Structures are given as C-alpha cells and as structure tokens.
C-alpha cells in the first residue's frame, strides 16, 4: 500500500521490492513485513512471502512476530516513565529493589548501568537457557523457570566481571530481565501488565502481547522457523515466557510498531496521549557508552549512531531464534523503518539500513557494503569438486562463518575448517592453523558472465557444481 506517493517515490519502492525479493530468495527468508515512515506519515507497508509455509499464508503488515531485543526499547521506556513520575531514580542501586548481590557497596551497580549494558558483568545468558528449553533444543538442567532461579543464577557469578560499573560495555539480556523485576517492585504490577496499561494501550498497539496465549488466539500470526545445521527448516512457536519478557519477549506487528515510532517522532505523543516528556526522550536517546560496533553507542534501550550519512540514526535489532526484527529512525527527518521476519538466520538490519540510505539518496553499495559482501558469500556456498571428482569440498555459511568441509582421498574423516576472506575485492582467503606459519592460502574466481565459481587452494582447483 502506497499513500500519497509521487512517481519518484513509487519507483523507489518498486526498486526496493525487487531488492527485498532477491534477498529473500538468496538467503531463504520465508516471510517479511516492512513499514516506512517519512515526515511522521506512513508512506509504505507491505508483507512479502509466507507467515506460514505449511499453509502458504501470506505475511502482512499486521502479522504478529517475536521482535526479540527490540523489546528492550519498551522496557527502557517503562523504567524512564517511572523515573519521570518519581517512582524510582536511575542512579538507584539495583539491590534497592531486588535481591541482587553483585557489585560492591563502594561502587554499586545502578539502574543506569543495566539500561546501558555497562554493569561490568559478563553476559551470563540465563535468558538463553529458558529460550532454548522452550524451543526444545536445550540439554541444560540449570534451574531457570522462575524469578528466584534467575536471581540465584546471577548472584553466583561473582567472578564474572570484566570491568567496573559504567566503564565497559557488555550486552546483557539478563540485566534487562532484572529491569522488568524493578518495574514490578516500583509499581506493584506484573511487568507485562504495566507495559500494556501504560504503553501498548495508549499507542493503540492492541494486538501486541507478551503472552503465547494471546498470540495463538490472533488470526494473523507468524510461524517461526528454526534453520538447523542439516538444512532442515523446523516450524516453532515463539520461545517466550514472563521471565524473558523484558529482554526480548514482546510479540508485535509492523503496523503496531509504526504507532510506536510515530509517538517517538512526535516527541512522545500519540493521538493526544502523552507517553513521556520530550526531555525524557532526549535522555533515552543520549549516548552513554561506546558499543562493540564502530560508530555505535548505547543509550537507554537504543543503539545511537551519530553519523549515518550525516544524520543521527537511533535503532535496535532483535533476534528470537525463530524470528527477528529491526527498527530504525532518523529523528531529525521524522523518518523510520520497521522490519519483521519469521526466521533469524539473516539479520534484517542490513535491509533496514539499506532502505534508509536509499531514501536519503545514498548509493546502495556505499550505504551497506555488508549487503554486497553477503551476496558474494552466498555465491560461494555449494558443492565443489576437483577434476573428475577426485576431491570434494562443501562450502557453507554457518552463523556468519564461512566454513569448508573436505574429505581427503584415502582418509575416512571429514575435516571441517573456517575459510577466512582477507580481501573481498580480490577474493583472497586463508585457512588458519594453530601454528600461523602453516596456514593455507587461496583465491576464489567468479566468472561474472557465466556464473562459474572456481576455488584454488594450495595445488588444487575446485570447481563449483
């Protein structure tokens, strides 16, 4: 659906649609939905592909999906609402509200530190234990079924520290789950009930929910897909429960999230409902600490990039193992994008950044070189053989790592190794060994006219079949 778009805008969206369809086909994305805002106006929404492969039901802008860590925006918003109302102070120590024993009396870990991932505590991933159990892929018996289990798990990690509070950035899901407990302590409400009352209902995000029961009662929901190592695609329900809600448990749709974006682009107001003061929003979007990614700092539940082609970009991605999303905004231009997918093996952030850059008039290759790199890497994936099939090699991309598997003649064993590309233009690569001097070097040749791919390593040349 295109609203009030001129001819140039229509052509831009048609070009974006071709790009999206090509990416979905190349990297096996079952379904995707997208919404775009320009000047606080929704100018484009569309679903692509299937929200359910088995029934071939279409993905739509109304399709609910697990937004993963985009949920942290809502948790940070809840905490800042309470700070605005005087219910808590962002400099309060965590143990004022919950049974949290890490940190020291002299230098306590504060709410601010949890919001900015700067507690100094290593990523412990109790959140992952619970999620994997719900997905049916866990072999862990670490207790992780209640608030008490989570706090016992965290309080045992006295030596899991990489720095003093406020000094080092370590992305930490468990600490955001603890922020949800603080909301409960400060309000007397369940976290999910507070967010529904104070955020979702005022924003008319009526279908967004933290519960699997509400999700399954809805008519337009996505089936999530887990991509296993053997190539099998397994349908799964969202792995959510109250315990993981603050860090990554919100189920929402593109259309609902567009309401959220409109409110923030309008200074915290939506259809006459005041969500927060503009000064509070400014505090949320203030960069407090450098992240692991170049050019990105962290605010309160948001990644902040000061120079996205001359503009400030505030954003966050989310990954729930079987679904993923991306929400990014350029506040000064009142522009934003939200993307939802029912898979998690390919990050929608690259697509979101590409679209924002194109809307800014930036060339795609300049805007998102990672997208071109992804295309090249996808070309390399497949089965290779030397002359007459004497030696065989399989190349795959597993969790972002280019991997080779080879069976040497005369050996019953299959050897697995990483393939590290050190020059993307020349397609030079090396295979690392424990002793650096022994590493094998090679080069990949791609014939642009015929599409033929040849891989030369040491004395062998492998031809892609």
Fold blueprint:
Blueprint: H1 7-27, E1 31-38, E2 41-52, E3 57-58, E4 65-66, H2 71-84, H3 111-115, H4 126-135, H5 147-155, H6 173-187, H7 191-200, H8 212-217, E5 224-227, E6 233-236, H9 245-248, E7 251-252, H10 254-265, E8 269-270, E9 273-274, H11 278-284, E10 289-290, E11 296-298, E12 303-308, E13 311-319, E14 324-330, E15 335-341, H12 349-359, H13 364-367, H14 369-380, E16 382-385, E17 392-398, E18 401-407, E19 414-418, E20 420-423, E21 428-431, E22 440-446, E23 453-457, E24 460-464
Antiparallel strand pairs: 1-2, 1-15, 2-3, 4-7, 5-6, 8-9, 10-11, 11-12, 12-13, 13-14, 14-15, 16-17, 16-24, 17-18, 18-19, 20-21, 21-22, 22-23, 23-24
Helix pairs in contact: 2-6, 2-7
């Amino acid at each position: 659906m295109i609203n009030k778009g001129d001819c140039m805008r229509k052509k831009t969206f048609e070009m974006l649609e071709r790009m999206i369809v090509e990416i979905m086909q190349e990297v096996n994305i079952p379904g995707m939905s997208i919404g775009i805002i320009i000047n606080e106006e929704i100018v484009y929404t569309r679903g692509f592909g299937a929200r359910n492969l088995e029934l071939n039901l279409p993905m739509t802008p109304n399709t609910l999906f697990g937004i993963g860590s985009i949920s942290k925006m809502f948790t940070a918003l809840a905490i800042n609402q309470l700070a605005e109302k005087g219910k808590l102070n962002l400099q309060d120590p965590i143990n004022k509200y919950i049974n949290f024993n890490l940190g020291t009396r002299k230098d306590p870990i504060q709410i601010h530190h949890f919001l900015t991932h700067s507690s100094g505590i290593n990523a412990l991933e109790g959140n992952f234990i619970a999620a994997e159990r719900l997905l049916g892929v866990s072999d862990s018996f670490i207790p992780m079924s209640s608030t008490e289990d989570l706090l016992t798990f965290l309080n045992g990690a006295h030596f899991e520290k990489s720095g003093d509070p406020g000094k080092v950035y370590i992305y930490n899901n468990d600490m955001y789950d603890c922020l949800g407990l603080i909301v409960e302590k400060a309000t007397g409400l369940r976290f999910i009930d507070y967010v529904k009352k104070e955020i979702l209902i005022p924003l008319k995000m009526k279908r967004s929910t933290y519960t699997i029961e509400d999700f399954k009662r809805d008519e337009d929901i996505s089936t999530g897909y887990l991509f296993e190592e053997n190539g099998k695609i397994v349908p799964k329900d969202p792995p959510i429960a109250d315990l993981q809600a603050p860090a990554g448990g919100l189920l929402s749709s593109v259309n609902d999230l567009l309401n959220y974006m409109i409110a923030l682009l309008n200074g915290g107001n939506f259809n006459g409902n005041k969500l927060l003061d503009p000064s509070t929003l400014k505090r949320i979007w203030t960069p407090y600490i450098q992240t692991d990614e170049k050019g990105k700092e962290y605010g309160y539940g948001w990644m902040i990039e000061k120079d996205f082609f001359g503009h400030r970009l505030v954003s966050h991605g989310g990954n729930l193992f079987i679904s993923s999303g991306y929400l990014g905004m350029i506040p000064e231009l009142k522009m934003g994008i939200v993307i939802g997918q029912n898979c998690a093996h390919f990050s929608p952030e690259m697509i979101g950044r590409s679209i924002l850059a194109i809307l800014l008039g930036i060339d795609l290759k300049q805007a998102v070189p990672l997208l071109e790199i992804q295309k090249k890497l996808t070309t390399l994936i497949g089965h290779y053989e030397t002359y007459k099939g004497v030696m065989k090699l399989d190349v795959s991309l597993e969790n972002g790592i280019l991997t080779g598997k080879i069976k040497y003649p005369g050996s019953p064993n299959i050897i697995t190794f990483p393939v590290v590309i050190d020059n993307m233009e020349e397609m030079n690569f090396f295979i690392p060994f424990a002793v650096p001097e022994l590493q094998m070097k090679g080069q990949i040749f791609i014939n642009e006219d015929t599409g033929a791919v040849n891989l030369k390593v040491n004395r062998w040349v492998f031809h892609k079949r």
